[in-house]
Design a protein that fits this description.
The structure holds two protein chains of two kinds.
Chain A lengths: L16 H5 L3 H5 L3 H10 L2 H18 L1 H4 L20 E3 L3 E4 L2 E5 L6 E5 L5 E14 L3 E10 L18 H37 L1 H16 L2 H10 L7 H32 L2 H8 L4 H37 L11 H6 L4 H6 L5 H23 L9
Antiparallel strand pairs in A: 1-2, 2-5, 3-4, 5-6
Helix pairs in contact in A: 3-14, 4-6, 4-14, 6-7, 6-9, 6-11, 6-14, 7-9, 8-9, 9-11, 10-11, 11-14
Chain B lengths: L1 H18 L11 E14 L2 E14 L3 E5 L6 H8 L7 E10 L8 E2 L8 H6 L4 E4 L3 H4 L6 H13 L3 H14 L5 H4 L9 H13 L5 E5 L7 H18 L2 E6 L2 H7 L2 E6 L2 E7 H6 L4 H8 L24 E14 L7 E15 L4 E5 L6 H8 L7 E7 L5 E3 L5 H8 L2 E4 L13 H12 L4 H14 L16 H13 L5 E5 L7 H18 L2 E6 L2 H7 L2 E6 L2 E7 H6 L4 H9 L23
Helix pairs in contact in B: 5-6, 5-8, 6-8, 8-9, 9-21, 15-16, 15-17, 16-17, 17-18
Classes of the chains: A alpha+beta, B alpha/beta.
Chain lengths: 385, 599
Amino acid sequence: MSTDQLPSQDVETPGTPEAETGRDTADVSVASQRQLIWWRFRRHKLAMAGLWVMIAMYVVTVFAGFFAPFSKDTTSADHAYQPPQLPSFSFSEGFYVHPTTGSTDPETLARVFEEDTSRVVNLGFFVRGDEYSLLGVIDTNIHLFGPTEAGERFYLLGADRTGGDLLSKIIYGAQISLSLGLAGVAISLVLGLVLGGISGYFGGWIDSVIQRIIELIMSIPTLPLWLGLAAAIPPQWGPTRTYFMITIILSLLGWTSLARVIRGRLLQTRTEDYVLAAKLDGVHTRRIISRHMLPSFLSHIIATVSLAVPAMILAETSLSFLGLGLRAPAVSWGVLLQDAQSVQVVATAPWLLLPGLAVVVAVVAFNFVGDGLRDSADPYGRKTT
Amino acid sequence: MSWRRRNLERDAAREIAAATVDDDRPMDPGALLELQNLCTTFHTDEGAVHAVDDVSLRIRRGSTTCIVGESGSGKSATARSIIQVVDHPGRVDSGRVLYRPSPDGAVVDLAALDATGPGIRSIRGRDIGLVFQEPMSSLSPVHTIGDQIGELLELHERLSPSAARERVIDDLRRVGIPRPEERFGAYTFQLSGGMRQRAMIAMALVCRPSLLIADEPTTALDVTTQAQILDLLAELKQSLGMTLMFITHDLGVVAEIADDVVVMRHGKVVEQGPVDQIFHDPQHEYTQELLAALPQRGAVTVTEPEPAAAEPERPLLRIEDLEMTFEAAAGTLFGRRRTERVNAVDKVTLDIPEGSTVGLVGESGCGKTTLGRCVLRAYRPTAGKLLYSGADGRVTDLARLSEKELLPYRRQVRMVFQDPYGSLNPRMTVRQVIGEPLRVAGLASGSELDGRVEAMLERVGLKRAMAGRYPHAFSGGERQRIGIARALITEPRLVVADEAVSALDVSVRTQILELLAELQGDLGLTYLFISHDLSVVERICDQVAVMYFGVMVEQGPAEQVFADPQHGYTRALLSAVPVADPRERGTRSRVAYEPEPVA
């Protein structure tokens, strides 16, 4: 006996907008689709958490110079592979750490650090340190947190091979890693909208050709293809040009799934009764697409996009990690992870894996938001449990 | 394998023994099933929805009990609670489901069993069978019919596969599936809707249950198929000595088959009693309302004033030899492609006189919707003419106009859709939806447009203030009013209503039909009313046209077609419509229509 749980139309199921949003019927009845989606999204706790993490990450990224204690280029040979330092607190000194001097053990070749407990490095908020320009226009040297004396060193998350502060590097690296995700998806979206739109709207042989191309692109193993394309970037190009090339390469390969989603939505929406109704209202094609069809699947596109961004971030990280994407002195999470390639380094300086944690947090936050959006994009759909 | 099965059986027996009730509130000896204060609640984040609210009812052994109610009345939830297959957030909260499998046997409280335990599983399918509304989705598409039915026998009766096969084929034959040996290996999609429902019934009956619960088993079927399935159920019930619990919203069906009737509303039982009493002496006012809303096909001859007395010399729209052919690509993946041509509408000629209501009836797939859409020029007809007489007396052939030339006619020929949910864009407010045709034509804008939209809302019985709302804030009936307002905002002359009331509950349906009739009188509208529901068509139409497989088989004035049908198919169709009066039961013989093979 099949005990399939058919959607029973007879029961007042909790799929009504009222139940989903927890608002009065009066509010809900004049609420636009966008408001309904937002109300539902807000009830999605994980997605809201993801959204806050995402906002926090982008704020830190935009004001990277302010949030990072040091500039990404300052190094200190004395502090190569300095382990993370935990600030101490005393009422007389405020936050402080003891300065260290590093040396290489002549027998084991391991780095040893000696704490000089007689001296302190005072730490404070809104301190003056390395020069940077905020948003590229305001030149300043104020940092949120750091040593009060300019020139002192302090490593909250440890140091890398050159003695650069890992925390600062992760923050600066986010500039490239996070923006590349957005830029790549933006280009992908344009490509996907155009090609998916053409494919879905015209149908017929055009549709077939585009779909076959998409399948072809999807069937090529991505990593070797990225590698091939990335290897074609001339090594003498500067970081900015490389950055743009990498973005374009990633989005040229990443538009396929977006195009498919858009085509599918278009095909589905095309058969809706209200589209026929609009046609019978005498609405011309362009308006049918832009006013009647597009709004109804816009939220789904946004959800798909927010799920595509982490894929881009991961792709950039993998490329740079393999040394084929961006290269030092450019700083991205992938570039930072390059240092953690050898097992030996990971064993002696495990904090070099922290950029990986940043990638994980960013990707998870994006995925939560995307999932939440996808669930709430359709206020009439029943929640899948 | 066998020890596991033995364990399971032992567990099931133990669980059922634990749920056996000592008679503190004794069960009626003649009853097979008795619900006592059953409550099923859907626990959502927003609080509890009481789908089944303190329901007590009794099903006599050997009877057919119909549970009637409109959508949302909790009738399906009640049936599902009995065997504990309520949809996800729902749970049986309190109350008892007393079940006595044999007349002198012990009474088991099914509600006390664990919903996923072996006890209830041994009862589902074996003692209580279930038939769902939509056979396509309740049968697995990846297993053959025979395997699915046979699985039950292997589970419950431990038959060997070959013995199970014999039984299944026997049962398939019993439910009237021709060539059961071949159909044993058929997949769901290879069967027609009626055949699927027969297979579903065979599946529910294969273990010879003492109770069969049929949840709207005929709602998705055509009226002639419905008649066959109802006959089949009645006959099987006789021959197998079953008790039948039949859930439906269709009072006509109830009158045809029920012994007892339970009327439900908002999760509560409002009235129960023998079918004759319910229909002829209803006690509760809700039952009276339901019956009053019922179109009495054949029972009372409605004498409505006929405004269209004199036939005007030229009809508003003359459909001449209209043909619509669809090309469908068939063939296998690697086989040769061939295009199959489907004649959805085949040389149909029909006059639609001005000011009249022309009904177009037929079963699903007969081409009535295609014809309607050709009239609207949503499709471009393959051949034939659509001669439309304009207000100034000029005749235009709509079939050959280009999209641009059509624009003025798009405002004169309008459509009301079937689905009140899908036909309104959820992203637009009611004001935008209704005003759209005027806005794109540049006929009105700003406050003038708003004024016209609001006046139209009032005209269809809604409030002006509702214009700012989105469609999701309206009930099905209200949405259909919005759909009508959208059709009428352009002051059309011809309105094509494609199954405009089919998706609505009976009481709402009556209101919408009344609204349509009133608007016709006031605005001088002409309707092309497409419907599969003959009672509705008989009630409101002046002319009736019957279609069968794309061909118009009969047309004429409504009374004439209904009183004296000429074509065999019309006769079959009419005889299949259930009459909503239990006293008329059995007075008519069913006519079956077998079309002569077309050369």
